[in-house]
Amino acid sequence: MSERNATIASRVGLHARPAAIFAEAVGALPVEVTIALEGDPADDAMDASSILSLMSLGAANGQVVVLRAEGDGADEALAGLVTILETDLDAE
Amino acid sequence: MQSFTGVGVSPGRIVGSVRQMPKAVSEPPAGEQLASSTTAEDAAVTLRAAAKAVQAELKQRSVSATGAGKSVLEATALMAADPMLIKGAVKLINTGTSAERAIWESAASVAEMLHNLGGYMAERATDVLDVRARIVAELRGVPAPGIPASDEPFILVADDLAPADTATLNPAVVLALVTSGGGPQSHTAIIARALGLPAVVAAVGVESITDGTAVYVDGAAGSITVDPDADQLEAATAWAANAATLAVFSGEGAMADGHLVPLLANVGGAADAVKAAAAGAQGVGLLRTEFCFLDRDEEPTLDEQVTAYRGVFDAFPGKKVVVRTLDAGADKPLPFLTDASEPNPALGVRGYRTDFTSPGVLKRQLAAVATAAEGTEADVWVMAPMISTAEEAADFARMCGEAGLKNPGVMVEVPSAALTAETILGEVNFASLGTNDLTQYAMAADRQLGPLAALNTPWQPAVLRLIQLTVAGSVAEGNNKPVGVCGEAAADPALAVVLVGLGVNTLSMTARALAAVAAVLAKVTVVEAQRLAGIALAAPSALEARARVRAELPILDELGL
Question: Where does the secretion signal sit in this chain (chain B) (predicted)?
Answer without folding.
Answer: none
